[in-house]
Specification:
With about 120 residues, the protein is of the alpha+beta class. It starts with a helix and ends with a helix. It has six helices and three strands; from the N terminus they run αααααβββα. It has one domain. The longest helix is centred in the middle third of the chain and has 11 residues. The protein is globular, with a radius of gyration of 16 Å.
Length: about 120
C-alpha cells in the first residue's frame, strides 16, 4: 500500500481523525478487496488534466463499493487534487471541472477588498 501525498504534507497526520488510504481502499479482508477501480485502472487517469480522462476516472468510481468512504476520506484530508470517490478535487475542494491552463481565477469583490486591506 502506498502513502498519500496528503499524508506527507500534513504534520501529525497519523495522530488525527482523518480517514486514511487503508480505510478506503480495502474491503476489510473480503474477497475482491483489491478489485477496486483505483487498484485495477491506470492511476494516472485519477490525476489527469484533460476533462475526457477526468470523466473516465469519475465513471470508473461509479460502481465502486468504497465510493462514499473514499469521498469522505478525501474531504477529511482536504485532498489537493485528483478524482476521489467519483468527484474532482482541486485545493481540497470538490470542483465541477478543472480551470484551463493560464486562465486567471475570477476574484469576487470580497476577495479584492481583503487583498487591499
Amino acid at each position: 500500500m502506498g502513502v498519500l501525498l496528503s499524508e506527507l504534507l500534513v504534520p501529525g497526520w497519523a495522530d488525527s481523525q482523518m480517514i486514511g488510504l487503508r480505510d478506503v481502499t480495502s474491503l476489510q479482508g473480503q474477497a475482491g478487496s483489491f478489485d477496486l477501480p483505483c487498484h485495477t485502472a491506470d492511476p494516472e487517469i485519477f490525476f489527469a488534466e484533460d476533462m475526457a480522462t477526468i470523466e473516465l476516472a469519475k465513471s470508473a468510481c461509479g460502481a465502486c463499493p468504497m465510493k462514499s468512504a473514499c469521498l469522505e476520506g478525501a474531504l477529511s484530508r482536504n485532498e489537493p487534487c485528483g478524482v476521489w470517490g467519483g468527484q474532482l478535487f482541486d485545493e481540497g475542494r470538490v470542483v465541477m471541472q478543472k480551470r484551463g491552463v493560464g486562465r486567471p481565477r475570477a476574484l469576487r469583490e470580497n476577495d479584492l477588498n481583503e487583498k487591499v486591506a
